[in-house]
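The instructor's notes for this session suggest beginning with a concrete chain rather than abstract definitions. Hand out the sequence below and ask the class to guess, before any prediction is shown, which regions might be ordered.
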Amino acid sequence: MLKPNIETFLGCEADFEQARIVLFGAPFDSTTSYRPGTRFASRIMRGESYGLETYSPYQDLDMEDAAVFDSGDLELSFGDTEKALADIEARASEILSANKLPFLIGGEHLVSLGAIRAAVKKYPDLHILHFDAHTDLRDEYLGARLSHASVIRRAWDLVGDDRIWQLGIRSGMREEFMWAREHTHLHKFDLKGLPEALAALQGKPVYFTIDLDVMDPSVFPGTGTPEYGGVSFGELMAAAVQGCGLNVVACDMVELSPGLDQSGASTAAALKLLREMLLKLEEPFIRGPKIV
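After discussion, reveal the predicted structure:
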């Protein structure tokens, strides 16, 4: 019998009831300050994912053994930022209320705020682990308080001081760096502050957000605001896998703009990182005792 064509991320074919992780796309880039195009990331990643193997030789784990449900892309309003965020929050809340982990694929970085709003309602003691090239700590950008340049500042409004760890940061206004000294744990230029962050975040509910422009544009040019001096793919993958070993209750990957890298290399990098993160999050269940 013929069946409808339903495209999912490679290996993310569990049904909702049995899944432990639920992916969803947030195709929104209306506040992008430089080069738009991140709204296409989740759709293109989903199609390109079939160029990747389900098996990871890095972790000796296979997506065929994971329980991940792909719930597809949201249909978001491009003319109403707050409505778009509310729709993202609603999807993340639905996933969290079912005791599953929401994994958001952006989109610009502002989309994270919708999922963070949902997570902090369920986990009032929420902490944030943030990999990025940019501080994202402006209180407003061109008069707008909701912007991809202010997303972590808006997250701070929700969680407060000493709950946000920022790594890889190498760009921002002087005022942002000065503000961070008093309010967040900001580590400049690389991911070498990760061991300190991991120690501090042990046992705490963590929202893990990765802006892919933390990578150097020589290896990841497909992003809207490239910033030289970033980390390699290998450095990011190793750090992201370690981060996923924490008590991650929700996470996201944002700021791939696939049209800015016609080679497809940036999309391939994002997909490989996604596979490794999903497998690390699923590792306790894949390697756990089997019920016969």
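Then share the key points. Residues 21-286 form a domain with the Arginase; Chain A fold (CATH 3.40.800.10). DSSP finds eight helices and ten strands in the chain.
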